[in-house]
Write a structure and sequence with these properties.
With 44 residues, the protein is mainly α. 52% of the residues lie in helices and 0% in strands.
């Protein structure tokens, strides 16, 4: 029974954290117009 209570408490805390982060919204800022290079260009 303790395990069930602990799991429910953990789930409630995680849900509260997600809701708090969602309520705060995304941070204000701008994205870079330049694309990110994820690979090294091949040498011929």
């Amino acid at each position: 029974m303790r395990a069930l209570i602990a799991a429910a408490t953990g789930l409630a805390v995680a849900l509260a954290l997600v809701l708090a982060l969602t309520a705060m919204g995304s941070p204000a800022g701008e994205t870079s117009p330049k694309p990110l290079l994820t690979t090294v260009p091949a040498h011929p």
